[in-house]
Amino acid sequence: MDRPRPGPTDSIVDVAGLVVGQVELGACEETPDGATGVTAIVAPGGALGAVDVRGAAPATRETDALSALASGERTHAVLFAGRSVHGLDAAGGAVRELERRGIGLPIEAPRGRILIPIVAAAAIFDLAHGDADVRPDADDGRRAILAALDGPGGRPRSGNAGAGAGAVTGNVAPPRLKGGVGHASLVVPGSGATADLVVGALVVVNSAGSLVDPLSHRPWATWGGFNTPGPVPDFERIGSARGQTTLAVVGTNARLGKAQLARVAAMAHDGLARAIRPVHSSVDGDAVFALAVPEALDHPGVDAHPWGPAAVTIVGALAADAVTRAILDALESARPSGGLEAYRG
After folding, report:
1. Measured in whole angstroms, how far is the alpha carbon of residue 13 from the centre of its chain?
2. What string of DSSP letters covers 135-146?
3. Which of 153, 123, 18, 162 is nearest to 76 (CA)?
4. Are 159 and 179 a contacting pair, CB within 8 Å?
5. Residue whose C-alpha is closest to residue 270's, from 282, 288, 285
6. Are the CB atoms for 200 and 6 separated by under 8 Å?
7. CB 3.0 to 4.6 Å from 293: which of 47, 228, 259, 299, for a disulfide?
8. For residue 250, what is the domain's CATH number?
9. What is the DSSP string of 216-266?
10. In contact, 264 and 251? CB cutoff 8 Å
């Protein structure tokens, strides 16, 4: 297999059938890019969905619908928001806007057909950034969907954007730096009639653990450092912490089953572990969502069958690599805000 390369936008929108919209709120002198926000990853034609939650303090909605044991086979959007459980209100507005746009699962009712958009959502804890009373609501979820469906397209914004506007890294392990949203994609060229295999990732980095070695000031993801112990977490901060959370969604054009896609989501968590120390802690709500879209498109997508049992491993390995690269993008794109320094100043 050829070495994978970044896609045209180096983001999840390189996966045909996925679009991204982001909104921020609470911009002021202290938080010029916004105190918090919403990021929507939308599959207008529907996508197969899965999720793997590893953190101990999640704030989620509709994740059960993505279980491999659930009967549903369509997801129409994944929505990430700030402000913990309060921010999950944004999902209601996303559902209503998708229904208004004719996107959803058609259900026959006594008074005619109705649409049920399946919107899975998760939130980060960013209440310490900016005015805590500024919280995403249903209208912000609606605006994020509008930005995805009617926006200019192209590469989504990185850093202090969308749900990453209020994100922070190193909340219990130094150094404490501004977090944010990051993007990446990887493409494996096809051969003959086989289409390119595409895997993309979007990550909102708001971690209890650190992304940077406090001694060398190099990102863990670029130099490893796993042969030396990581920084000892601040026990006092852990005791007073209420939650952090890193969220990711990976997308692919590979044709996979629901159980296979769940394995991809599980493998993608390795991308978090390569870049964040510690990760999946008692004060994180870390979750990785996965979307596979080929069955919703006009073209057949990449058929996984020629790879046999290796199909899931190949896609999962690419997903983990894309997640790590997206975390680096978030770290390097973040700007100072709310009294927090950024990695690049």
Report:
1. 12
2. ---HHHHHHHHH
3. 18
4. no
5. 288
6. no
7. 47
8. 3.60.70.12
9. T--BHHHH--TTS--PPP-HHHHHH------EEEEEE-EE--HHHHHHHHH
10. no
DSSP designation for 156: P
Backbone angles phi, psi at 306, to 5 degrees: -60, -25
For residue 210, being part of any structural domain is answered with yes
| 342, part of any domain | no
Residue 305 lies in a domain: yes
What range does the domain containing 155 cover?
Answer: 12-333
Q: Total structural domains in the chain?
A: 1
Residue 196 gets which letter from DSSP? P
Separation of CA 226 from chain center: 25
Span of 92-96, 232-236, 247-251, 264-268 with lowest mean pLDDT = 232-236
Report H helices in 49-89: 84-87
CA distance 40 to 93: 11
Among 322, 285, 266, 132, smallest CA distance to 208 is for 285
The tokens 């993608």 sit on which residue?
268
At 299, is the pLDDT very low, low, confident or very high (cuts 50, 70, 90)? very low
Copy the structure tokens of residue 6: 């970044």
170: left (phi over 0), alpha (psi -120 to 50) or beta: left
Cα-Cα-Cα-Cα torsion 220, 226, 232, 234, nearest 10 degrees, comes to 30
Asked if the structure places residue 2 within a domain, the reply is: no
- Going from the C-alpha of 84 to that of each of 78, 116, 136, 319, the distances in angstroms are 16, 25, 10, 26
Would you state the structure tokens that stand for residue 38, as one six-digit string?
Answer: 């919403």
Please tell me the total number of residues recorded for the chain in this structure: 345
Q: Which residues pair with 115 in a beta bridge?
A: 106
Residue-level pLDDT at 337: 98
Report the chain's mean pLDDT, rounded to a whole number.
92
